[in-house]
Design goal:
Blueprint lengths: L2 H20 L12 H9 L3 H14 L11 E4 L3 E11 L4 E13 L4 H16 L13 H10 L4 H19 L10 E3 L7 E3 L1 H8 L6 H8 L25 H37 L12 H19 L2
Parallel strand pairs: 1-3
Antiparallel strand pairs: 2-3, 4-5
Length: 313
């Protein structure tokens, strides 16, 4: 090992130790903890962060905070990936679904920002999905609105990171930068600081030059997004490199394309299953009695056909 390599390892360990000391966290013995492990330890030391960690453990049925690495990974951009897998049983005609969630955190930034990113993403990851990608009636505006204003959406996620930022500032004198404009002191309210969610919501809907284009694409649906504003954008999606409503519109289109492809494959599978059943039954289709495999298959086929008709053009 070269002297430069040894120096890098030493400096990395020193930075981690100093970061822990800043937040009053003991490094213990053994290997140098990862920045994600450090962020988890820091979150456990403030009330809002601790509540989020406890919710995550319950949601994912994980026993110890140090085992959250099963779900939280290091990545170039902080984001939450949720993969919905549908399983179709051709024998019964029934469908089951699995949702696998992975949090990616950009660890190439200050520990404070790693902590705040993790607090933000855990809100997304631990909340139930506020929409069904295979819902025939899911519109563009509904998707945008649920992603920003829904349970576990962007407004709630930023509010959580700001509560954590406020608690870190109070307990460890960490300077507030990311959330300064969203926090307000409320003397006599029983709280030291209040998060101004109305301002967070307003900033998410500022789309600047994209406003007219969005209004044209959304048409009458735009009434659902009453906060949409031509003011200069303040918050940009890290994955879409655009104001959130614009990035979410692109996300909706991509999600719909994938869902349409999957649904067309589902129709082919269902048709093959029906043809096979008729062949094995000497040319007779199974009786469509309530609760029978055939009735389940018919219901699935009807739902899939409706989805294709309304959302796939």
């Amino acid at each position: 090992m070269t002297g430069i390599a040894r120096l890098k390892i030493f400096l990395g360990a020193l930075a981690s130790t100093l970061a822990l000391m800043t937040f009053g966290v003991s490094a213990g013995t053994g290997e140098t903890p990862s920045r994600i492990d450090l962020a988890i330890q820091v979150l456990l030391r403030v009330p809002s962060g601790k509540a989020e960690i406890e919710k995550a453990l319950a949601t994912w049925k994980i026993d110890r905070p140090e085992d959250l690495g099963q779900v939280i990974k290091s990545g170039g951009v902080s984001r939450t990936d949720a993969v919905l897998t549908r399983h179709y049983d051709p024998e019964t005609g029934k469908e089951s679904r699995d949702r696998e969630v992975t949090i990616y955190i950009n660890t190439a930034q200050s520990l404070t920002n790693v902590v705040l990113d993790l607090a933000h993403e855990m809100v997304h990851a631990t909340s139930r999905p506020s929409f069904d990608p295979y819902d025939p009636n899911l519109t563009r505006a509904q998707y945008i609105h649920s992603a920003i204003d829904g349970v576990g959406g962007e407004v709630q996620a930023v509010a959580m990171e700001c509560r954590v930022a406020s608690e870190l500032s109070k307990n460890y004198q960490i300077p507030l930068k990311r959330c300064q404009s969203y926090l307000e002191s409320k003397s006599g309210s029983g709280q030291d600081v209040v998060v101004k969610t109305d301002l967070i919501r307003r900033d998410f809907y500022r789309v600047g030059q994209w406003n007219n284009e969005l209004l044209q694409v959304l048409g009458s649906e735009a009434s659902l997004l009453s906060d949409l504003s031509p003011e200069s954008p303040h918050l940009y999606s890290s994955t879409g490199n655009a104001p959130y409503p614009v990035a979410l519109l692109k996300e909706y289109e991509a999600l719909t394309r994938i869902a349409c492809e999957n649904s067309r494959k589902r129709i082919v599978t269902q048709s093959s299953t029906l043809a096979s059943s008729m062949t094995s039954g000497n040319g007779r289709a199974p009786a469509s009695q309530s609760g029978s495999p055939s009735s389940s298959t018919d219901a699935q086929a009807d739902s899939t056909s409706m989805f294709l008709q309304r959302r796939c053009h």
